[in-house]
């Protein structure tokens, strides 16, 4: 055992794949060989039931971003064929961090969730940004047609086990305390963002009946 120190520069690190294997062990064949390269019917069913995913991207310089994407189940993902899917762009803060990354580096990782389920569907592939296509008509939500879609050519996909969700208790209502540990959204914005708005104005902005008006408009 190495001598412990409070100096972060002296903490022992893992620098090679061999060290990683020595520390964690080899994956079981079931895990090692489960990646597939095309959608099955069960994958299509999962995508149709998923209202939420996280899209991971990296710039050409390796600067990373993980962006949440959400729509009603059945509207989040459009399956083009067994090797291609698309996600619509919806109104947001216009930073477009992940999209800027895709312009530089097409590699993306997607994790699709179903509320209450601990397992997830992971898809890795190469993305491009499409300004228009016939399938955009299938991505209309509340009368709004997207102006942009992320089209992903699937390179591999597989289902991931539930252990992280079980450890975290994510779907257990007994663990939920949305505003117990941190301030409400308006207070966070007042403290961390250059809004130019008072806390009262921010509270009004983030009232559900006001904030939800801009979800698709």
Instruction: Strand order, main sheet: write it out.
Output: 2-1-5-6-7-4-3
Secondary-structure element series: HHHEEEEHEEEHHHH
Give the DSSP E fraction (strand runs of 2 or more residues): 15-25%
**Number of helices, where a helix is a run of at least 4 consecutive DSSP H or I residues:** 8
Largest sheet: 7 strands, antiparallel
Shape: globular
What's the average pLDDT? Answer: 95
Rg over C-alpha atoms, rounded to the nearest angstrom: 21 Å
Beginning-to-end CA distance, first to last residue = 58 Å
Low-confidence stretches: none
The helix/strand class is alpha+beta
Helix content: 25-40%
Account of the 3D structure:
With 217 residues, the chain is α+β, with helices and mostly antiparallel strands. Helix content is 25%, strand content 25%. The protein has helices at 17-24, 29-32, 41-49, 97-104, 163-168, 185-192, 199-206, 208-211, and strands spanning 52-58, 64-70, 77-81, 84-88, 107-113, 120-130, 149-160. The protein has a 7-stranded antiparallel β-sheet, with helices on one face. Helix 6 packs across helix 7 (199-206). It is globular.
Walk me through the topology:
Layout: H1 17-24, H2 29-32, H3 41-49, E1 52-58, E2 64-70, E3 77-81, E4 84-88, H4 97-104, E5 107-113, E6 120-130, E7 149-160, H5 163-168, H6 185-192, H7 199-206, H8 208-211
Antiparallel strand pairs: 1-2, 1-5, 3-4, 4-7, 5-6, 6-7
Helix pairs in contact: 6-7
